[in-house]
């Protein structure tokens, strides 16, 4: 443990000072602080990756937020359901708190977001399509070798195009990556999220 | 299953024709074909993601190949050892074949590459630093919640900076993502790899 931290520790690794940040990382910190009222701990902790982290974010954000140039057409609700279920499944406390909170905002219902994260199979409010996507998230996280032609056919049968399915696969997979990065660093959950729920 | 494929199927999802590719995807296919003599199946299969895939590659390649603007300083051998061990561990046949082959080229020793992929703990040729990085790859793939302060301290003790450790964590994590994408699509291993080994 380094002596950098006072109070609960933000990350197992060194946390760069604000004036060390790349221009793009500083922009992200500033915009997020303006929008949310604070800089989430993951942004401070991940800044150690410099341009690599900027490239991660350039891939991650369009997948989570949707992008005009993306061939797939998942809803914002679907993207965040996937991110939430993967994060809870991987036992990433930081990601769990963050994605349940974001899903709560997307749904305008934090209680529903918690229920989806904790056990989506029991949530009657999900559509068939959402439930199949959520099932895909679990399988692809725990036992990725078990994805079969039948699973893909079932997703097509509820109206998803191959481009939509690929986008869901990418969302699930990159959250599996960000969960691992966050767990490796032991990023401290943002107290701002818990303070208001 | 669609009727797009004759012979062994390249992917579970639709494979875009060459003239559908984004300029950046076409450039990647062309450069790789020139360098390797063929277009690897993953490039054809992942092209369904359009600009999302281009953004994935923009994050992935600098992590695997090293980049001047990266704060970490892992060797090419270390990066590819990590990618190989994660791919074998996740049971991704395509990624297993591809990364063992690439590691074999980096080491100029395909036999050593196979031994590292299959059971690195028994490989005396690894340095302590490489062995600890390889152990990190296994833990962060299977049980990411078990990374501890002690594990990080042990990595520092063999000379890795916090930036190096973070880079290793990013390599391990993104390969966990690409393994899952590849398994979801069931990408057919490239026969060109197996033909020559």
Automatic annotation (TrEMBL), chains A, B:
It comes from the Bacteria. Residues 60-101 form the Carboxymuconolactone decarboxylase-like domain. InterPro entries: AhpD-like, CMD-like, Uncharacterised_peroxidase-rel. The keyword Cytoplasm does not apply. Keywords: Oxidoreductase, Peroxidase. Pfam families: CMD. GO terms for molecular function: peroxidase activity. NCBIfam families: peroxid_rel. This is Peroxidase-related enzyme. It comes from Actinomycetospora flava.
